[in-house]
Write a structure and sequence with these properties.
Layout lengths: L16 E5 L3 H12 L3 E5 L5 H18 L13 E3 L3 H7 L2 E4 L5 H14 L6 E3 L6 H5 L8 E6 L8 E6 L5 H13 L3 E4 L9 H18 L4 H16 L4 H8 L4 H16 L10 H14 L5 H25 L16
Parallel strand pairs: 1-2, 1-4, 2-3, 4-5, 5-6, 7-8
Antiparallel strand pairs: 6-7
Helix pairs in contact: 1-2, 3-4, 9-10
Length: 340
Amino acid sequence: MIRKNDNHFPPPDGVERIAVLGMGSVGASWAALFLARGLEVVAHDPAPGAEQRARDFIGHAWPALVQLGHAQLAEPDWTRLRFVDTAAQAAREAQVIQENLPENPELKASVLAEVDAAAEPHKILLSSTGGIPPTRMQASCRHPERLVVLHPFNPAHLMPLVEVVGGEHTLPEVAQWAMEFARHLGKHPIQLHTEASGHMTNRLQFALVREAISCLLEGVASARDIDAAVRYGLAPRWALMGGLMTLHLAGGPGGMRGILDHAGAAIQQWWQPGPEPQLTPDVIRQLAEAAQEVSNGRPVADWVQWRDQSLVDVLNLQNRMESAAPHGDADSGKKQDVSQ
């Protein structure tokens, strides 16, 4: 565990004030969780109306945070959230800096350079980037060793998973600090061993999305039934276990080797990807029509509200199931309580 004297980083459970740069849906989501966990948030976002949109988002997110046990107060303590005029000011006033800028490498480079110049070297810089390699972002920094990716999943204030990804210059203790800080926030962090486009979980997610789009374009099934195949055929098991464990259990007493000996040739055919879909104007039109079908034509806001309310039940159920799962010595101490 990193201690206060190690490279002068604050202990993960001792952070009291965090800078949040970019207060769009991801930044506001992080800010809601930080406030729920008792941190002060120094925010910066130059977009017109950003502060009011962020406050509205946090207000709507708060009930779910209360139900999950992240927030102890019935309402946000708005005195702990304040906006400042520049990213540099936010970086100077906070102990840790958390960045949520758009996936625009040039924009990130400019702001990261500003922040890196303003913040003392002991202030860790966490990036929410969904796919830009941290080494590329470190090129903008005089202190690249303190930058590490802490990639959340939408909605960031609810979903437990975060990916920790270090770059070529990231100190090992900085990556470890990010893991411990995520656990302190009630997250379930995973650490990637190498940089990759889209990190890892997006790679898994979009392999399935790619196949869903291919099935739609090939006319295999309707958009509604393609989504139903995931919701009712795959998702219930995946709430309990990943793809590797699912395959292992499919082999019965023989486990992974049993299923591969029995059906390996067929599986080899099944996992061959379909035609690579290209996002042409016609494909985009078909996907927009598919979105109207699966959403029953209802506004996105209605579905977001339903999703977030339902996720509370799903996450609590997942946590109860995890507590009853078989655990060996390798798992001791790793289980995280999403309601802590």
